[in-house]
UniProtKB/TrEMBL annotation:
It comes from Micromonospora cathayae. Gene3D superfamilies: Oxidoreductase, molybdopterin-binding domain. Residues 35-179 form the Oxidoreductase molybdopterin-binding domain. SUPFAM superfamilies: Oxidoreductase molybdopterin-binding domain. InterPro entries: OxRdtase_Mopterin-bd_dom, OxRdtase_Mopterin-bd_sf. CDD domains: arch_bact_SO_family_Moco (cd02109). This is Sulfite oxidase-like oxidoreductase.
């Protein structure tokens, strides 16, 4: 004897991709910036991790390229409501860059060439969740998309994936960045629609 009554059928699942609330799918890669696009030559580029005590670890472009590389394929979600699925990147995991850094910090403030900053819990940069990305779709990352390198934190709204990244300062306490000071959410989870303070 069956558990399900004869003639009972489930509803077929939708073939549409699951998007965070309020988002729409785009085939494009829109370019949004808070100011002019910095043009940073790779021979002058560096990335610096600064611990709470002021200790620094630095990488030149050549040193970054010599580190183990990863090719994450991820969905990205902009606070302006577009989502792009299955984007392909190349870069270095923050796990690699933070390995061996002696810290008890709980937060990070990301700095970019051009002066942009954004804040994140340090836990959101670890465990395979974030990269310093220098390639997109098999090519070097274009300047308008944050090249030569940008932060990639795909589980948060895309303003947290700071373009033209140049360093991360580790902090004991949270410190808001550029958009967070202007009223955007401190965390920015697209699945909880954390667009603005109070969301």
């Amino acid at each position: 004897m069956g558990i399900v009554s004869p003639g009972f059928q489930g509803r077929p699942r939708s073939a549409a991709p699951a998007l965070p609330p309020g988002q729409y799918l785009t085939p494009d890669f829109p370019v949004l910036s808070a100011g002019p696009t910095p043009r940073v030559p790779t021979d002058g580029w560096e990335f610096v991790v600064t611990a709470e005590d002021g200790t620094e670890r630095r990488w030149t472009w050549a040193e970054l390229m010599a580190l183990p590389q990863e090719t994450p394929t991820v969905d990205i979600h902009c606070v302006t409501r577009w989502s792009k699925l299955g984007t392909s990147w190349q870069g270095v995991s923050l796990d690699t860059l933070l390995a061996g850094v002696d810290t008890t910090a709980r937060y990070a403030l990301v700095h970019s060439y051009g002066g942009y900053t954004t804040n994140l819990p340090l836990a959101d940069l670890r465990d395979g969740r974030a990269w310093v990305a220098h390639g997109y779709d098999g090519r070097p990352l274009a300047a308008e998309h944050g090249g030569p390198a940008r932060l990639l934190v795909p589980h948060l709204y895309f303003w947290k994936s700071a373009k033209w990244v140049r360093g991360i300062r580790l902090l004991a306490d949270d410190r808001p960045g550029f958009w967070e000071t202007a009223g955007y959410h401190d965390y920015g989870d697209p699945w909880r629609e954390q667009r603005y303070q109070g969301d």
